[in-house]
């Protein structure tokens, strides 16, 4: 239940006679109605109000809920000295208040308390309730100072025998609200016959006092509710980050001696790279600096190893730095926007010719099981290539190639998503406007490497737990 729902519940209890107790010494609403009728007759006799048109008797099937025995159902017109609608904007109108233009001009709406400007003369001098007949239909407000209503704003002058605030609370509880409701506008003939649950005057006052006592608590509840809602929105993301952090600290699954060590795995990767370089299948890369003690953010298991990303890769490159000639159809041309969701999306890609693709593919050749990494704009999003379809890359996307028999690509993806890499991506993304995570900094990124068997167990546990974070919020 949000704060508005809580407020609505309080008002509903109030108009059902359930918010405060009934007291016999306060009399009955029937006696109050007799006083109102006598007041109306006197004012009519003095020519201060017009004769009220007679509305039909209240039928049983009109009554929406039960009320206490001392209360009465009565039509709004029977409690009012007049109900009218505002007219056109006055000719003598200014948007800002001045020494001569001090009277608020009030229209339908909530913003700025409905005030749209100022004029010299008020058309309503009495304390009245206004009700928006258009826009935010049913929004009511108690006006105690002279004003001029416009644009069919409904104005209700309540009998002096009643508590204006009580009637205004009833209207707030009962009238339709909101833009685009089932009614397009609220008119005088529509509001006049509205049923009002009427208690004795003293009970009206006690109801208003109780509502005003409770509303500050509703405001506090609103703040707390908003904070909880915000936490709920952030919870899955924060929980996922925590799971990934535990995973890359070696705390999510157990270490097993039979898995071997990451040091042995690292040596195997380097030996394989040397072999491929010798065979001319991959190019020799620059030697990356040793990892220093102050770079290491946390402890990892003894059989793990801190490594630089570039040390694990057979190839680290990015897409073409030149804008190609686009074609209506052809080979998909992938940029950041096509993978920023965390998945490959070919639905809105641009296209290049087969000839241009073949030229670009000689340098940057994405294949199934490789990892793409966003490096311009929104940086640090990894995506596993899960298609055999050929495509080319723009400069905003990096290509990571590695031996998938020695490094599990899903572990690679999750470790890049984890805070340890994301922090480095954020710190090393430089420039103004379309910021860039340059290839040198990507290669120098440090990450924890477990043995291959443990990589697979980590991924299995992550994929078991991540869906549960979203489910927890639903429950």
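^ Assign residues to that structure.
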């Amino acid at each position: 239940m949000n704060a508005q729902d809580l407020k609505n519940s309080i008002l509903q209890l109030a108009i059902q006679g359930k918010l405060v107790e009934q007291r016999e010494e306060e009399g009955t609403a029937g006696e109050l109605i007799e006083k109102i009728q006598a007041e109306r007759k006197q004012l009519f006799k003095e020519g201060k109000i017009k004769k009220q048109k007679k509305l039909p008797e209240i039928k049983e099937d009109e009554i929406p809920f039960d009320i206490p025995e001392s209360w009465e159902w009565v039509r709004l017109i029977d409690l009012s000295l007049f109900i009218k609608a505002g007219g056109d904007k006055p000719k003598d109108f200014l948007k800002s208040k001045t020494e001569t233009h001090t009277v608020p001009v009030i229209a339908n709406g909530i913003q700025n308390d409905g005030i749209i400007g100022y004029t010299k003369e008020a058309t309503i001098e009495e304390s009245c309730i206004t009700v928006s007949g258009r826009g935010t239909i049913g929004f009511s407000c108690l006006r105690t100072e002279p004003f001029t209503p416009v644009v069919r704003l409904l104005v209700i002058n309540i009998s002096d025998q009643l508590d204006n605030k009580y009637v205004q609370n009833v209207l707030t509880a009962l009238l339709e609200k909101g833009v685009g409701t089932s009614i397009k506008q609220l008119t005088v003939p529509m509001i006049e016959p509205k049923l009002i649950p009427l208690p004795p005057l003293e009970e009206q006052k006690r109801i208003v006092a109780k509502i005003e006592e409770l509303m500050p608590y509703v405001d506090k509840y609103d703040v707390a509710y908003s904070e909880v809602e915000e936490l709920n929105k952030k919870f899955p993301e924060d929980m996922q980050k925590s799971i990934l952090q535990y995973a890359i600290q070696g705390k999510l699954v157990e270490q097993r001696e039979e898995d071997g060590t990451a040091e042995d795995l690292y040596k195997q990767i380097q030996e394989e790279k040397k072999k491929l370089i010798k065979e001319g299948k991959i190019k020799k890369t620059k030697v990356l600096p040793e990892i220093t003690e102050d770079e290491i953010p946390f402890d990892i298991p003894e059989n793990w190893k801190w490594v630089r990303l570039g040390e694990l890769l057979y190839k680290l490159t990015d897409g073409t730095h030149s804008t190609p000639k686009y074609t209506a159809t052809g080979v998909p041309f992938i940029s950041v926007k096509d993978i920023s969701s965390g998945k490959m999306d070919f639905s809105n890609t641009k296209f290049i010719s087969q000839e241009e693709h073949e030229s670009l593919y000689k340098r940057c050749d994405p294949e199934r099981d490789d990892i793409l990494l966003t490096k311009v704009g929104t940086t640090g999003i990894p995506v596993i290539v899960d298609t055999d379809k050929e495509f080319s890359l723009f400069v905003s996307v990096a290509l990571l190639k590695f031996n998938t028999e020695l490094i599990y690509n899903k572990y690679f993806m999750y470790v890049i998503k984890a805070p340890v890499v994301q922090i480095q991506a954020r710190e090393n993304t430089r420039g103004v406007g379309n910021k860039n995570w340059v290839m040198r900094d990507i290669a120098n990124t440090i990450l924890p490497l477990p043995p291959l068997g443990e990589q697979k167990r980590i991924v299995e546990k992550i994929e078991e737990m991540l869906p549960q974070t979203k489910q927890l919020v639903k429950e």
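The chain has a mean pLDDT of 91.
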